[in-house]
Amino acid sequence: AVAPATNILSRSICLRGLSRLLLVYILSSYFYSLASTVPKIIKMEKFKLYPNLNKTVCSKLVDSYHHITTEKCPSTSSIGDSRIFGYERFIDKQISTYLFDLDSNYIFSSIDKRPKYQTLMFNHTYYDDFAKGSGEGWHRDSSFMKQFKTIFYLVSVDLNNGPFKCFINNNIIFDFIFKYKRRFSDDFIKNYKFLISDPKTFISDTPGCGFSINTNLVHRGSPVISGERYAITVYSYLTDPDAAIYKLSTADLKIKS
Fold first, then answer.
1. Which stretch of DSSP H or E encloses residue 177?
2. Mind listing the pLDDT tens digit for each residue in 47-60?
């Protein structure tokens, strides 16, 4: 009496697997045929690498962080992830302008527009048993608006102290099916691994590594296994941002003319 039930279960599992593969094939054929009918497609630059920041500049930025009290600045904190927003107010204007301009130029080269508002976020991630990493796990910054970030590591970053990871070559089917999903658990990523390629990991054996990236793509700062990571990030907005989430007013954000 057990054998027939086992056979039915095996056939059911097999059919589900075949159905999944058939769906992938049909959607792949549809999207690739659709793309072939469009003669001109603007290919957005998904990320761009920059020359490293000077080590002295990196050290000064990290030192400035340790001399700022959270009572005097807008800050947030989650497990293993501390952030200070509006950081341009605490550092040399030449540095903040350089970072803002890199980010603005990257956005312009990607979508032919420049941001209206920009601000800097200083990020310190460190080990904790329950930490999910910077950004609290796999996510995309928005499902509706174009979103970009420019990130500079202020220390050397390896696989242990929280490198940034991003699915640069997302499968077109994954993006279509989960376009409006913003957060993804580790188990979810594992279950749909057949739809996406391995993430790109940004590491550097020297401080100052910098890059701009399209954060509509699924990404995360990896959980720190050992050590700590310091980084500074440019947040840019094409439209009026909800500045309140950073404990800032819109007027606090740098307006680009």
1. helix 172-177
2. 899 999 999 999 99
Cα distances (Å, whole numbers) of residue 220 to 76, 155, 166, 184, 212: 17, 18, 7, 10, 14
- For residue 3, give the 3-state DSSP assignment: helix
Phi, psi of 44 (to 5 degrees): -70, 140
User: Taking the CA atoms of the chain, what radius of gyration do you get in angstroms?
Assistant: 21
C-alpha–C-alpha distance, residues 69 and 244, integer Å: 20
Residues of the chain with pLDDT under 50: 2, 30-44, 256-257
HEC letters along 153-193: ECCCECCCCCCEEECCCCCHHHHHHCCCCCEECHHHHHHCH
Q: How far is CA 145 from CA 141, 177, 184, in A?
A: 9, 17, 19
Sequence letter at residue 229: R
Contacts of 55 (CB under 8 A, 6+ apart): 206, 207, 208
Q: What is the rounded distance in angstroms from the CA atom of residue 226 to the CA atom of residue 224? A: 6
| In contact, 134 and 162? CB cutoff 8 Å | yes
Terminal CA-to-CA distance of the chain, rounded, Å? 77
pLDDT digits (tens, 9 = 90+) for 34-91: 433 333 333 446 789 999 999 999 999 999 998 886 556 667 778 888 899 889 989 9
Rounded to whole angstroms, how far apart are CA atoms 148 and 217?
Answer: 10
Note if the pTM is more than 0.90.
Answer: no
Block residue for tokens 């080269």: 109
Q: Which residue has the tokens 């697997």?
A: 17
Tell me the C-alpha to C-alpha distance, in Å, between residue 255 and each of 21, 24, 41, 119, 174.
Answer: 49, 44, 31, 9, 35
